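Title: Prediction job returns without error message
Component: structure pipeline
Severity: low
Priority: P3
Assignee: unassigned

Description:
Job completed but the reporter wants confirmation the result is attached to the right record. Sequence as submitted:
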Amino acid sequence: MAAKILMLILFFGVMIAVGLWSAKRTSGVNDYVLGGRNVGPWLTAFAFGTSYFSAVVFIGYAGQFGWKYGLSSTWVGLGNAFIGSLLAWLVLGRRTRVMTQKLDARTMPEFFAKRYDSKALQIVGSLIAFIFLIPYTASVYNGLSRLFGMAFSIDYKICVVVMALLTGVYVIAGGYTATALNDFIQGIIMLIGICSIIVAVLNNQGGFLNAIRQLSEIYPEDTVTPQLAGSKGLLTSFFGPDPLNLLGVVILTSLGTWGLPQMVHKFYTIKDEKAVRTGTIVSTFFAIVIAGGCYFLGGFGRLFDSPAIYAANGSIAYDTIVPQMLLTLPDILIGITVVLVLSASMSTLSSLVLTSSSTLTLDVLKVTVWKNMSEKQQMVVMRVLVAVFVIISVVIAFNPPTFIAQLMGVSWGALAGAFLAPFMYGLYSKNITKGSVWTSYAIGVLFTVANMQLHFIKSPINAGAVTMLLGLVVVPLVSLVTPKPDRAMVDEIFTCYDTTVVVKRSRSLEE
């Protein structure tokens, strides 16, 4: 216990020190929200990766999907790496940085307002982001509740309050710069931690090959798709016992990052062309190790089947599977695990609260009721709203909802369903219309909410994946039949890609 507490004290001390150091270098709104668009390649890459993965992945998704799909759940981690990270950087990274600088857009809703000439899109987009980021925050705290219940005998609520206060302090003090620096430190901890934990867990099962053999002998009656009924070795097979639902998880957790405000925001802050190249490689490697490692570890979950992972009604409490696996570790490794998941979760939470406070300040208050808000007032309001969002998240955390994966599916489905298509197409096409963006908003929110009530798609994960794909199909179709944007305005916006440096801006950020 002493070792675990010492690790936490050291960890929190470093986070606060970084926040106070960053506060001295944050003088305006652009510094606070975007790091002055001057964030280097390694910090940008780690900020992207650590905001992507949290307790939701390590505790919730790894446990549930590892149990359901066995080692084939590793496909989810690889999808996160190559679709959610590599392709996201290649498709969105450079173009997002160039166009958002041209538009002087600091948030995703502000991008929609200036790209499609509509303040209403900005206000509604901000409200959608704020509302549906709250369930995501709750899912992060739910994962932490399972971990602290396993590792400590102190009240979980005390841990939540302390963590929320410390997260709030360094975000309020240093804004994006503090978040990015802490993300880098937290990312290093995550890389070391996940590798150590995988080795230790497999050693406790007699080594990798023995664990594979034991897993191959288990028949997953509760998750096998009817077409594969009776097959042997499903939990160690290439596509697992239920390939179709596995595909839904890959789509939601990989393509979803392309439409999440807190993820796309990282591209706004890119410093130069080197940051694009390095960020693409480093964030992809980070995702392979962290996401691939988490799901690979979760794939051995059935080897830890015990009464402790079952709820009172006999159903499987998926969020207890990974904590049950960790119980077999030495105390020092449990301490490393706690710091690992705290690192992942605090980086995600800091990104969520900064996104929420900035979008409410810049996209709602400044656009509607406080139009003459000065830069100094904007800074004060954003810091106050960071504190408000932290308080709301703590209230939710005191009674965290069950089933992390389903909760995150609702959040990501609504956000990416609403924002992904109009954002991506808006970077590439001059023909996307304001009407198609409203349609995408409606699909993301209404489809998600309707499915929560009517359950016409049983799995929220698959529902979220369908919502994203619908947006990608519907937005260009609606653009064909709705009023076209002002051609002169759009042509002026797209001149940002044709500014000649050594090559076109669409290929380089060099001045």
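Comment from assignee: result matches the submitted record. DSSP finds 19 helices and no strands in the chain.
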